Amino acid sequence: MTAGPAEVVVTGVGLVTPAGIGREATWEGVCAGRPTARRDPELDGLDVDFACRVPGYQPREHTPGGRPWQYDRYTQFALTAVTEAVADARLDPARWNGDRVAVVFGTAAGGTASQLEQHRTLLADGPGRVSPMLLPKYLPNMACGHIAIRLGARGPSLSTSTACASGATAIGTAWQLLRSGACDIAVAGSAEASVLPLWVAGFNRMGALSRRRADPATASRPFDVDRDGFVMGEGAGAVVLERAEDARARGCPGRAVLAGYGAATDAVHAVAPDPDGRGVTGAMRAALAAAHTPFEAVDHINAHGTGTPLNDAAEAAVIRRLFGHRPTVTSVKGALGHLLGAAGAVEAALTALTVERGIVPPVVNLRRQDPDLEINAVTGDCRKQRIDVAISNSFGFGGHNTVLVFRAR
């Protein structure tokens, strides 16, 4: 065990998103600039009847270990992503010291589908028909618990819930655990499966969703002058983190270095961003300070970029103010939709791949950039770019702001 701060590398990545099941399917989809929003039969009759679903997901095929009925859909996604990430890291849970493996996994909602299903059962058939599996499927910590059981991970484990920043918070917390010496391997990420009529209706009543029913594929438009809200999505992202010296010792250099983590809170409004961007600014400053990296060294920003009028304006203003050298900016929500609690982990994983591969995915559906948002957004095709330092922004209701810094290894 190595005590004290140490360099941390991403040795494994796993993804389940509306662009496809698996890391490479997702990467290819976002780089190709393919939007995934489409009409959703489960949302028939609602004012917003489209979303971004994970295509072709078969629980019996894609949930490791069988018996998928034990898990809510969000936990199924989590287990699929984690299994890929661990394999990508070339680690074998049967051979590692589980006492030194941590799991930090986030979600905004947990197993909401299971909760709603059993509530309907309670109302229709009475309490005697409620499933004894309700709580193990619904509770927001259960993806984390099932991951630990599946991997035999007996080190620290916890579930993070900071709304749409949950995944980034999980990864940052895992980074801290590794650097403190509390574990030798950390499996981190987040999952969400809340494309449900109740959630869609709630977000729509808030005015947060795009209402472009006539053309769902173009509905999510981060930083566009005609943006009118986000599109609901689902999925999971997972990373394996290790101290760099440990990874090198077993012949795995890692995909990218996770160099810094910062968090700050707006403390202004329950759901609207601080228009002055103080929390975002604080998170960026903290993350770059932890990474011992100046603002001018940042080559690329994976923005939160929801496509809502207020979020994009506040985020772009901070980027313009702090990064005068105009690093490239992308948001994958035009392609994937907003994955809510899973967004931060998926976007962090994609940022690590962007650093590793030197390719920036475009902002899908950004056709006319808002002239008030003076950022260097990548549009059209993906862009080849040498990236030594990149940051990934994740913000959530409640004023949560989380920033992760990645460096080339």
Concise overview:
This protein has about 400 residues and is of the alpha/beta class.
Question: Describe it for me?
Answer:
By secondary structure, the protein is an alpha/beta fold. The protein has 2 domains: 8-249, Peroxisomal Thiolase, Chain A, domain 1, CATH 3.40.47.10; 262-407, 3-Layer(aba) Sandwich (Peroxisomal Thiolase, Chain A, domain 1), CATH 3.40.47.10. The protein has helices at 23-32, 59-62, 73-88, 112-125, 134-138, 142-151, 166-180, 197-206, 244-249, 278-290, 309-322, 333-336, 343-357, and strands spanning 8-17, 20-21, 38-39, 50-51, 101-106, 157-160, 185-192, 235-243, 256-265, 300-302, 328-330, 359-360, 376-377, 383-384, 389-396, 400-407. Strands 1, 2, 5, 6, 7, 8, 9, 10, 11, 13, 15 and 16 form a 12-stranded mixed beta sheet that branches. The chain has a two-stranded antiparallel sheet with strand order 3-4. Helix 3 crosses helix 6 and helix 7 (166-180) crosses helix 13 (343-357). The chain is globular. It starts with 7 loop residues before the first strand and ends with a strand. The model has no long low-confidence stretch (mean pLDDT 96). This is 3-oxoacyl-(ACP) synthase II.
Please supply descriptive tags for the structure shown above:
alpha/beta; twelve-stranded mixed beta sheet; Peroxisomal Thiolase, Chain A, domain 1; PKS_Beta-ketoAc_synthase_dom; transferase; Ketoacyl_synth_N; two-stranded antiparallel ribbon; acyltransferase; 409 residues
